[in-house]
Write a structure and sequence with these properties.
By secondary structure, the protein is mainly alpha-helical. The protein has 15 helices and nine strands.
Length: 360
């Protein structure tokens, strides 16, 4: 296996920002005798999301509801799948949910259960995206589809001129692609992020296949076998569930890095002018930090700055430590990007899509 080399600056142009920040955050937890991992509120949220998601599934499969009721529950289930991805699987795969590796591993398999894959995600997200954020042709989060241009360094195509119109709808197909193709595609790619010819453990390939079969069974086969619905009625429910989850997941992740104020780089640049921590600050943005409903539902991913700097701290703590990050960034004169409202962040992403889609 070979790996592309991207170097972050080691110059002390920003003083000891990262060291000072880690010290302040560590002191916050020590002074309050708090664990950096999940607390009772996080466990309660996990239980609620699991019950809502698979409770909705159970009611659908029962066949005791009218078609309109089943359709409404497909919408609820889509919201639940997205919530489990945000609030349970994401933290667990980062090793942030618990100090116990086995607990993180088991909860990380929720990613597999909802259609993704814990192992593939740990490579594409934990390693590649978190290290090489917004570096085109390395950070694969910038390459969601050929008809969506998310970096100024990407090749412009005529279809991009309408991406601000079709983009949000296109995000809806993300989980369908993820469940059916994406994980298989990633494992078969010769090049994935900075890696070339990366070898994957046989055990992970077997586990991927097993969980995909389970996923296809409960999402497709069982409903078609037990429910008295036509194929097109099933398809409407299936698409409703996945379009709901896909749009929610797609929008939330795009609001973190592809909005006004965030920087983008190209992989040809062998050395990034900033240290890794400052690079994260400049390529990442928060949104709706005071919205308690969003804070609860998206698992702290609206505090994406804190997540990138402290991925092994449970998301339940991000609202509290964000104040420390803001203060430290201000002290070192480093930008802290954020949009006060969810709608404002969406509008900013829309403007960026339109700008990147315009003919260069």
């Amino acid at each position: 296996m070979t790996t592309a080399k991207i170097y972050f600056s080691k110059e002390k142009t920003t003083g000891n920002f990262h060291q000072e920040l880690k010290l302040r955050v560590s002191r916050y937890f020590a002074e309050r005798n708090l664990s950096e991992n999940a607390n009772a509120a996080m466990v309660f949220k996990t239980v609620i999301l699991l019950l809502v998601t698979f409770g909705a599934y159970g009611l659908i499969i029962s066949g005791k509801l009218p078609l309109l009721g089943m359709w409404a529950l497909c919408l609820v289930m889509g919201m639940g799948l997205a919530g489990l991805g945000f609030s349970v699987a994401h933290d667990a795969v980062h090793g942030a949910y618990s100090k116990n590796k086995n607990v993180n591993y088991v909860l990380g398999l929720v990613m597999n259960l909802i259609g993704g894959n814990r192992y593939v995600w740990s490579i594409t997200h934990n390693i590649i995206h978190h290290t090489y954020t917004n570096i085109y042709e390395i950070d694969e989060d910038l390459e969601v589809a050929p008809f969506i241009r998310l970096s100024k360094h990407a090749r412009h195509r005529p279809i991009h001129r309408i991406q601000h119109i079709i983009g949000f709808l296109a995000y809806g197909f993300a989980t369908i692609f993820w469940v059916l193709l994406k994980d298989f595609k990633k494992l078969m790619q010769k090049k994935i992020g900075p890696y070339t010819n990366k070898k994957h453990p046989s055990s992970e390939i077997v586990l991927l296949i097993i969980f995909k079969v389970i996923c296809y069974a409960y999402m497709i086969v069982i409903p078609l076998l037990v429910l008295d619905v036509t194929w097109w009625q099933f398809l409407i429910g299936f698409l409703t569930m996945h379009m709901t989850a896909g749009i929610i997941l797609g929008v939330v992740f795009q609001l973190a890095h592809t909005v006004e104020g965030t920087e983008h780089h190209h992989h040809d640049t062998e050395e990034i002018k900033d240290t890794w921590a400052v690079h994260q600050m400049k390529t990442t943005s928060n949104f709706a930090m005071k919205n308690k409903i969003i804070n609860w539902y998206v698992g702290g991913l609206n505090f994406q700055i804190e997540h990138h700097l402290f991925p092994r701290i449970c998301s339940i703590h991000y609202p509290a430590i964000s104040k420390i990050v803001q203060q430290t960034a201000e002290t070192y004169e480093i930008p802290y990007n954020y949009h006060p409202t969810f709608i404002g962040a969406i509008q900013s992403h829309y403007r960026v899509l339109k700008q990147l889609g315009a003919r260069p």
